[in-house]
Write a structure and sequence with these properties.
Blueprint: E1 2-3, E2 10-11, H1 14-17, E3 40-45, E4 55-59, H2 60-74, E5 81-84, H3 91-104, E6 107-108, H4 116-125, E7 130-133, H5 135-141, E8 154-157, H6 164-174, E9 178-184, E10 188-195, E11 204-205, E12 210-213, E13 218-222, E14 234-242, E15 248-253, E16 257-260, E17 263-266, H7 267-275, E18 280-289, E19 296-304, H8 313-322, E20 333-336, H9 350-355, E21 371-372, E22 376-379, E23 384-387, E24 390-391, H10 411-426
Parallel strand pairs: 5-6, 5-7, 7-8, 8-9, 19-20
Antiparallel strand pairs: 1-2, 3-4, 9-10, 10-11, 12-13, 13-14, 14-15, 16-17, 18-19, 21-24, 22-23
Length: 431
């Protein structure tokens, strides 16, 4: 049984998951993570933070089976009250804020608060004891007063790495541990760990999930929730160090390990080094391919804790990095920005990050250049006409996002970048 958080009306949802039993009685709670009816009931997409998104169909047995397994693993009790601060459009949000409550007889809020103050308000108004959130929100929540999240007993975090500094600040401020979830659209949930004070703790695979490491250091996952079109075990893009007891340390993603002048370096390691500085609020490091033997160079965007950092702020960061990394591996550019761009799930899309450096996602400079012909004015007794030839290159910056494979120049851009400059060129006397 579940009930709507506001209405408080009892609703039987077991009949929605399995055929009704004889006599009209409710069917028993599922005792196995394997749910009948293998048909596709949802399509999920990878985040696409490093490139194009990939589509994956999910069957009823995969989604409901995983929700059941998660409920069993975390012993979410009937009557638990869950606030989800991550959209159910994300697989993590769908599982933890809708399907898991349905399977366990818990209540969930219809709202999806995104900002720290509204998250706290939703927790308070619904007397929630479980919060499902993401790392970027935990950073903001840690700035609220101690009593803002009173009543919470468990906090889940996923969709991206949880920095040690954020885990420590939140856990110490609210005296609440954070349960992290590692998974992907392709594999489903893989592992979990509990962060009590930001300390380094290993990941433990979920029951029924087998984790190994291949010769390249990549994680191999064998799980009933790996998509049926994928090989088992499935080799992920995650790098791990596997312990003898089955736990493992996550070393970042393989695409975050690059070679610079023959030396291997991890972008996440550079980020953590910068994030440990007291005058750094947030940071993102990206690797850009370059020609020649160098291979790559790094770019770093840093959010200072002060609105107006000192003039030697960037120099100080370079000094810190120089103590840990070879000079050839230091970021080629470090820029101070107001915020790191993030999507609704707290991830940083590569194209938006690269724009902070006036670069396209492929590392090439953003092209703002138009090639203009000479304007020609035609007049007759009744009207005056203006004609000009303008070459718009295929990689013109304003095409970005409008739309992949079908470039379209928005009307407002045409007016501002084409029409008005043409008029100014032809009729300078208008001012």
């Amino acid at each position: 049984m579940i009930h709507d958080t506001d209405a408080g009306l009892p609703i039987s949802v077991a009949s929605l998951l399995e055929p009704a039993s004889p006599g009209g009685r409710e069917p028993p709670r599922l005792s196995s993570p394997v749910v009948p009816h293998p048909g596709v009931i949802a399509t999920v997409f990878t985040s696409g933070t490093t490139g194009a998104t990939t589509q994956w169909d999910k069957t009823r047995s995969e989604l409901l089976g995983e929700a059941h397994a998660l409920g069993e693993r975390f012993q979410v009790e009937p009557g638990a009250r869950i606030v989800g601060a991550v959209s159910p459009g994300h697989i993590y949000g769908l599982l933890f804020t809708i399907l898991l409550p349905l399977m366990r007889g818990a209540a969930f809020s219809r709202e999806t608060p995104l900002h720290a103050e509204t998250v706290a308000q939703c927790v308070r108004e619904n007397a929630a004891n479980v919060l499902v959130t993401i790392p970027v929100q935990l950073r903001s929540l840690a700035a609220l007063s101690v009593g803002s999240l009173a009543g919470l007993e468990r906090v889940f975090s996923s969709t991206g790495p949880l920095p040690d500094s954020v885990a420590r600040a939140f856990s110490e401020h609210f005296s609440l541990p954070i349960t992290e979830i590692l998974g992907s659209s392709e594999t489903g949930g893989i592992a979990t760990r509990v962060r009590a004070a930001g300390e380094a703790v290993p990941w433990w695979p979920f029951d029924g999930v087998q984790v190994a490491v291949n010769d390249d250091g990549r994680m191999e996952v064998d799980s009933p929730f790996v998509h049926s079109d994928l090989p088992r075990p499935f080799v992920t893009a995650d790098l791990i160090d596997l312990n003898t007891d089955g736990s493992f340390k996550h070393l970042g993603r393989a695409d975050g390990i690059v070679k610079i002048g023959g030396r291997r370096i991890s972008t996440s390691e550079v980020e953590e080094c910068l994030r440990e500085e007291s005058d750094v609020d947030d940071v993102a490091v990206v690797a850009v391919p370059v020609e020649g033997g160098r291979g790559h160079h790094l770019l770093a965007a840093v959010v200072p804790t002060e609105d107006r950092p000192s003039e030697d702020f960037i120099a100080g960061l370079r000094f810190v990095l120089r103590k840990k990394f070879e000079p050839s591996c230091l970021p080629r550019r470090i820029v101070s920005v107001e915020e790191i761009p993030k999507d609704a799930n707290g991830k940083t899309p590569r194209d938006r990050l690269m724009r902070l450096f006036d670069l396209q996602a492929n590392g090439r400079p953003i092209n703002w250049t138009l090639e203009w012909g000479e304007p020609r004015v035609e007049r007759d007794d009744e009207r005056e006409g203006l004609e000009v030839s303008v070459h718009v290159p295929d990689d013109y910056a304003w095409f970005e996002g409008h739309f992949e494979g079908f470039p379209l120049l928005a009307g407002a851009v045409q007016l501002k970048e084409l029409v008005l400059p043409t008029v100014e060129r032809a009729f300078p006397e208008l001012g």
